Amino acid sequence: MMEKGRRGTVMKIIPYQHGFGPETVKMWRESKEAAIGQKDIHSFEEHLYFLNEILPATHDVEIALSNESVIGIIAYNRTEISQLYIHNDHHGNGVGTALLTRAKEASSGILTLYTFEVNEGARRFYEKHGFRIIGRGHENEEQLPDLLYEWRR
Predict the structure, then answer these.
(1) pLDDT for the residue 31
(2) DSSP strand E in 67-136: where?
(3) N or C: more exposed end of the chain, with fewer CB within 10 A?
(4) What tens digit of pLDDT does each residue of 27-38 get?
(5) Number of Cβ atoms within 10 Å of the Cβ of 98
(6) Whole-model pTM?
(7) How far apart are CA 23 and CA 128, in angstroms?
(8) N-terminal to C-terminal alpha carbon distance within the chain
(9) CA 138, CA 31: separation in Å to the nearest integer?
(10) What is the pLDDT of residues 79-88, one digit of tens each?
(11) Rounded to the nearest 5 degrees, what angle is found at the Cα of 60, between the Cα atoms of 56 and 100?
(12) How many other CB atoms are there within 10 angstroms of residue 15's CB atom?
């Protein structure tokens, strides 16, 4: 399905496919590093294994493509969003909104997610889309304070 984001970004959202793995992991790692100011603690290969083998066991994983390049990823199920990362060059273009809408539509009517407290851009994005903070502090590998958000239909 082709969608048009802000600033004319034409994208399609498809189920994740292993052939996009290396490009997806590269984008994900760069986006996360820019957001939290920290390099990923896992190797590229470990991250790729997580994307290909672990995450799809419990979540639907979808990617946004523009000109066949990965510009976003989301992993969600009926009750939570596990991952949502947008290519650094595509923030503010509607990619995150399009992916988030898909998770909301597939949800049970309530979604939760964690984001790093330091990630102010993500916090503004989620709050703009109706998520509210319902908890603080979550153990994570990065050793950074987390915020637990919830959205209700």
Answers:
(1) 92
(2) 69-76, 81-86, 110-116, 132-136
(3) N
(4) 999 999 998 888
(5) 21
(6) 0.90
(7) 29
(8) 24
(9) 21
(10) 999 999 999 9
(11) 140
(12) 9
Give the Cα separation of 121 and 133 in Å (integer): 15
Q: Residue with structure tokens 């509607």? A: 94
- Are 5 and 93 in contact by the 8 Å Cβ rule? The answer is yes
Token pair listed for 29: 């790692």
| In contact, 124 and 145? CB cutoff 8 Å | no
Q: How many CB atoms lie within 10 A of CB 149?
A: 22
Quickly tell me which residue has 């820019």 as its tokens: 34
Q: What's the whole-number mean pLDDT along residues 42-52?
A: 95
Q: 72 in helix, strand or coil?
A: strand
The pLDDT assigned to 118 comes to: 87
Whether residue 139 has pLDDT greater than 70: yes
